[in-house]
C-alpha cells in the first residue's frame, strides 16, 4: 500500500474511493473498505482510502477531546492488511475545516483524486461542520459522474458497531465486547522509559511506557501480548494511577511485566495487545498487599492463557519470604 501525505503527492487519477476518519478500523469500517477494494478489483482500478492526519472533532470541538482507538501508523497497518492500494492522508487544516461539501467533491474528489466511485457508511457526513450528508454526496456526485455506494450499518449481536461505542466500552472496562466490535484485540504502543525501579526491587521487573497522549488507555490490570522486534511475549499490564504508591498521582501510567523476559529494552518501542481484563486498579493498605496481589494476578494470568508460553519461567523465582520492601 502506498501512503501519500497531502494532495500534492497525487500523480495518478481514477480511483475507487472510500473516505472517513476510520478510527480503529473496526468491523464496520472493514465492511466499507472491503467493498471499495473488491469494486476496484472488478473495475481494474486502484482503491484509495481518504483519511485525515487529525480527528476532525478534536479540531472543530477542541473543548471536548476525543481519545483515539488507533494512531495513524496503526491505521495504516490495518488498512494495508485489508488490501487497500493507496492511503491518502489529508492535512486537516483551516482550509479543509472551512471547505463546503460542494467544494470538497469538486476540488478534491473530482479534480485532485479523479474519483470514479465512492463507498461510504450509512451515517456519512462531510464538509464544513459535517453539513453535507449522503443525499448531498449523491447530488454532487451526479455532476461529476461519481457513483455513490452506501454501505448499511454493521452489527455484532444487537450492538451497532461504531468508534464511539468501542471507546465507551473500553473506558467501562468491557474489553471482550470492545474487541468483538473491533474484530481484533485492542492494542497500543509505547516507548520504554525509566521508572523508579520499584518492581525490580520486588523481583517483579516492569517496563514503564511512554504512550501517545491521544489514544485510549483503559484503566485496569490486563493479561496481554507484548510485541518486541516482531516477537510475541506474554505479559501483564497495569494502566492507571498506582494509588497504593502515590496518593496524588494525576498522570495515568502504563507498566508491563513481561513473563520470562530479561532483555534491555530501554528506549525501545513495544506494542501491547490487551487480551483479558483481570481486575480494576485498586488502592491497597500497604506495599505487601500490593505485591501479593501482583503475584496472584500473574499466577491467574498463567491459568487464563492456554498457550502457557514462558509463564513457568517467572513463577518459581518469586517467593514471599524473599521479597524485600523498600520505603
Question: In terms of topology, how is this protein built?
Answer:
Elements: E1 2-5, E2 15-19, H1 27-43, E3 46-52, H2 56-60, H3 72-82, E4 86-90, H4 94-97, H5 101-113, E5 115-121, H6 134-143, E6 147-151, E7 155-156, E8 159-160, H7 163-171, H8 175-182, E9 187-193, H9 198-201, E10 207-211, E11 220-228, E12 231-240, E13 253-258, E14 269-279, H10 287-304, H11 312-315
Helix pairs in contact: 5-6, 7-8
Give structural notes.
- The chain has 2 domains: 2-160, Rossmann fold; 187-316, Beta Barrel (Elongation Factor Tu (Ef-tu), domain 3), CATH 2.40.30.
- A hairpin with a 2-residue loop joins β11 and β12.
- The termini are far apart.
- The strands form 3 sheets. It has a 6-stranded parallel β-sheet with strand order 1-4-3-2-5-6, with helices on both faces. A 6-stranded antiparallel barrel has the order 9-10-13-12-11-14.
- α7 packs antiparallel against α8 (175-182).
- The protein contains 11 helices and 14 strands.
- It is of the alpha/beta class and 327 residues long.
The CATH level-2 architecture of the largest domain is identified as 3-Layer(aba) Sandwich
How does the major sheet shape up?
6 strands, parallel
Order of helices and strands: EEHEHHEHHEHEEEHHEHEEEEEHH
CATH topology of the largest domain: Rossmann fold
Strand arrangement across the biggest beta sheet = 1-4-3-2-5-6
Structural class: alpha/beta
In whole angstroms, how far apart are the ends? 53 Å
> Strand tally, please?
14
| Rg over CA atoms | 23 Å
Tell me, what is the CATH class of the largest domain? Alpha Beta
Amino acid at each position: 500500500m502506498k501512503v501519500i501525505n497531502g494532495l500534492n503527492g497525487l500523480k495518478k487519477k481514477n480511483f475507487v474511493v472510500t473516505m472517513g476518519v476510520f478510527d480503529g478500523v473496526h468491523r464496520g469500517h472493514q465492511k466499507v473498505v472491503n467493498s471499495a477494494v473488491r469494486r476496484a478489483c472488478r473495475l481494474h482500478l486502484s482503491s484509495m482510502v481518504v483519511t485525515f492526519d487529525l480527528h476532525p472533532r478534536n479540531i472543530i470541538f477542541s473543548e471536548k477531546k476525543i481519545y483515539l482507538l488507533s494512531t495513524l501508523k496503526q491505521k495504516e497497518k490495518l488498512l494495508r492488511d485489508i488490501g487497500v492500494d493507496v492511503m491518502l492522508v489529508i492535512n486537516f487544516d483551516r482550509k479543509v475545516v472551512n471547505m463546503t461539501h460542494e467544494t470538497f467533491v469538486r476540488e478534491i474528489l473530482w479534480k485532485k483524486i479523479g474519483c470514479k466511485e465512492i463507498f461510504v457508511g450509512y451515517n456519512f457526513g462531510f464538509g464544513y461542520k459535517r453539513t453535507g450528508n449522503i443525499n448531498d454526496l449523491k447530488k454532487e456526485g451526479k455532476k461529476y459522474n461519481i457513483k455513490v455506494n452506501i454501505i448499511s450499518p454493521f452489527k455484532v449481536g444487537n450492538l451497532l458497531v461504531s468508534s464511539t461505542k468501542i471507546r465507551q466500552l473500553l473506558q467501562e472496562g468491557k474489553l471482550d465486547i470492545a474487541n468483538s466490535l473491533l474484530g481484533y484485540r485492542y492494542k497500543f504502543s509505547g516507548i520504554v522509559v525509566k521508572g523508579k525501579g520499584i518492581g525490580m526491587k520486588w523481583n517483579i521487573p516492569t517496563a514503564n511506557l511512554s504512550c501517545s497522549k491521544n489514544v485510549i488507555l483503559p484503566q485496569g490490570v490486563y493479561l496481554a501480548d507484548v510485541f518486541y522486534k516482531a516477537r510475541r511475549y506474554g505479559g501483564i499490564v497495569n494502566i492507571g494511577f498506582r494509588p497504593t504508591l502515590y496518593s496524588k498521582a494525576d498522570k495515568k501510567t502504563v507498566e508491563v511485566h513481561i513473563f520470562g523476559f530479561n532483555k534491555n529494552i530501554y528506549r525501545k518501542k513495544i506494542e501491547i495487545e490487551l487480551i483479558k481484563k483481570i481486575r480494576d486498579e485498586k488502592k491497597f493498605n500497604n506495599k505487601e498487599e500490593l505485591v501479593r496481589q501482583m503475584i496472584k494476578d500473574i499466577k491467574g494470568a498463567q491459568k487464563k492463557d492456554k498457550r502457557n508460553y514462558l509463564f513457568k519461567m517467572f513463577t518459581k523465582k518469586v517467593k514471599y519470604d524473599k521479597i524485600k520492601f523498600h520505603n
